[in-house]
Amino acid sequence: MRYICSICGYVYDEEKEGVPFSGLPDTWVCPLCRAAKSLFAPERQPETASAPVTPALSRETNVPDEAPELLSPLVLSALCSNLARGCEKQYKEEEAALFQEIADYFAAAAPASQDDSGGLAGLLQDDLDRGYPAVHGAARELGDRGTQRVCVWGEKVTMILNSLAQRYRAEGPSFLKYTQIWVCSVCGFVFVGNEPPELCPVCKVPAWKFDKIEGRASK
């Protein structure tokens, strides 16, 4: 039996490895992207008959109706930082600088970091359970292939973030001791290790596109 990493596509072949996948410890991670064992799935066998077409999901029935919550300064900082990067990719340097200035303002206004990995994991899981299916459905209905491609990257990044948050809850601060945190500047993939991966497991850019994250000083 072969098992496939849902993040980077790494294949664990039980016959070649000589160890059943079920026999691996729960702490085992993907050798390439460090995704948790739980993010692997059995390889699907080729289907002999065409699968029935699933109707496109409706925006009206899948997009949450509740009013949006107020965003925290740290979330606003991350949002503006992402917008700045998007402007950089489009060579809009002035707009990128303005968004980064706003991001820095909100980062400075954010309270000191606290251990809220449980709440964070819940929000990430909600995105995976409801948010991405809703966006995927709306994009399919509109024939928006660009949004669908963005969702593929975003969903994988959210999956690895959720996995890291759960590991932090289980192992505590020791999980990040004597190691580094790297973030892909293109897709946002997060890698925990002494050095960044040679290629981003999600968007395949080289290691020099990764930024090392330094800890934020407590106030």
Would you kindly provide a written description of the structure presented here, covering whatever features stand out?
The structure is a single chain. With 219 residues, the chain is mostly helical. Helix content is 43%, strand content 9%. The chain has 6 helices and 6 strands. It has helices at residues 14-17, 59-62, 73-89, 93-109, 117-142, 145-171, and strands spanning 2-5, 11-13, 40-42, 181-184, 190-192, 210-212. The strands form 2 sheets. A 3-stranded antiparallel β-sheet has the order 2-1-3. The chain has a 3-stranded antiparallel β-sheet with strand order 5-4-6. Strand 1 and strand 2 (11-13) form a beta hairpin. Helix 3 runs antiparallel to helix 4 (93-109) and helix 5 (117-142) runs antiparallel to helix 6. The protein is globular, with a radius of gyration of 19 Å.
Topology:
Elements: E1 2-5, E2 11-13, H1 14-17, E3 40-42, H2 59-62, H3 73-89, H4 93-109, H5 117-142, H6 145-171, E4 181-184, E5 190-192, E6 210-212
Antiparallel strand pairs: 1-2, 1-3, 4-5, 4-6
Helix pairs in contact: 3-4, 5-6
